[in-house]
Write a sequence for this structure.
C-alpha cells in the first residue's frame, strides 16, 4: 500500500491495472481487500485506484466528527496527487454514500458511476438512532458486537462470512465510530440522481439483508439510462459472492 497525506490524515491506497481510471470504494466496516476477487478481472480494462477510506485499513483518521463530504474530499485529494482529473467511481454500501458525495461535490471529475449494494436516501430517524447506539457500544465495549451482528447479514455463505469477519475484526474502533456517525448524518441524495449524465451502473443482490434490493430498483427508476444488474440469491457483498458478474457489470464503465 502507498500513502498520501490529505486533510490531516494519511490515506492508504493500492493502484494497479491499465486503462481508464476507476476508483473502488469499500463499504463499512471493511477495507480495500473487499475488492480482491474483482481486481484481477478488471485490471486489464482499468487503472484501478483502491483506497482504504479514512480510519480503515492502513489509513489514519482524526479525533473529531467528519462527514461523507470529508470522505469525498479525501478521494479528490488522492486523485489530485495522482494527477487524475476524471475517474469512474464505484461505491459499495457506505462507499456508495461516499461516491454520491463525490459526485455531488465534483461532478466534473466523474466519468462514470456505480452503486454496489448501496442506496440514495438518508437514514430514517430510527436507523439514525441505531447508528449512534452502535457507535456508543463500540466506544464502550469495542467492535466485537458489531462484527458478530453484521457478518451473517453480509452473506449466508459461511466461508465468505469468515472472510468478512476477518476484515472487520482488524479495523480500529475509531473508524467504526466516525463512520457510523457520518452515515447517520448523511444527506439524502435521491434528487441528485436525476442530474447524472455520465454512465451509471447499479449492482445489487436480491437477497441483500442489509440494504433491500428495492433501494436499487428506486435508483434505477431515477436514472433510466443506467445499466442495472440484479443478482439472484446474492447478498450484500456481490464482489465476494458473484465476482465475475460484478466485474462484468463494472466493465460497462470502460
Amino acid at each position: 500500500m502507498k500513502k498520501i497525506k490529505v486533510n490531516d490524515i494519511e490515506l492508504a491506497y493500492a493502484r494497479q491495472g491499465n486503462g481508464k481510471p476507476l476508483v473502488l470504494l469499500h463499504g463499512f466496516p471493511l477495507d480495500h481487500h473487499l475488492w480482491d476477487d474483482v481486481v484481477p478481472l478488471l485490471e486489464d480494462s482499468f487503472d484501478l485506484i483502491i483506497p482504504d477510506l479514512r480510519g480503515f485499513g492502513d489509513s489514519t483518521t482524526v479525533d473529531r466528527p467528519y462527514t461523507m463530504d470529508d470522505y469525498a474530499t479525501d478521494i479528490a485529494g488522492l486523485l489530485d496527487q495522482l494527477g487524475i482529473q476524471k475517474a469512474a467511481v464505484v461505491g459499495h454500501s457506505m462507499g456508495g454514500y461516499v461516491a454520491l458525495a463525490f459526485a455531488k461535490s465534483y461532478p466534473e471529475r466523474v466519468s462514470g458511476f456505480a452503486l454496489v449494494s448501496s442506496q440514495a436516501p438518508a437514514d430514517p430517524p430510527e436507523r439514525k438512532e441505531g447508528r449512534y447506539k452502535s457507535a456508543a457500544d463500540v466506544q464502550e465495549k469495542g467492535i466485537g458486537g458489531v462484527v458478530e451482528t453484521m457478518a451473517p447479514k453480509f452473506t449466508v455463505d459461511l466461508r465468505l462470512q469468515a472472510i468478512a469477519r476477518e476484515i472487520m475484526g482488524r479495523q480500529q474502533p475509531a473508524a467504526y465510530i466516525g463512520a457510523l456517525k457520518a452515515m447517520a448524518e448523511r444527506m439524502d441524495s435521491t434528487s441528485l440522481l436525476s442530474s447524472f449524465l455520465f454512465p451509471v451502473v447499479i449492482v445489487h443482490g436480491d437477497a441483500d439483508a442489509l440494504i433491500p434490493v428495492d433501494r436499487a430498483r428506486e435508483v434505477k427508476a431515477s436514472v433510466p439510462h443506467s445499466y442495472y444488474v440484479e443478482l439472484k440469491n446474492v447478498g450484500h457483498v456481490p464482489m465476494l459472492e458473484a465476482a465475475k458478474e460484478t466485474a462484468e457489470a463494472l466493465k460497462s464503465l470502460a
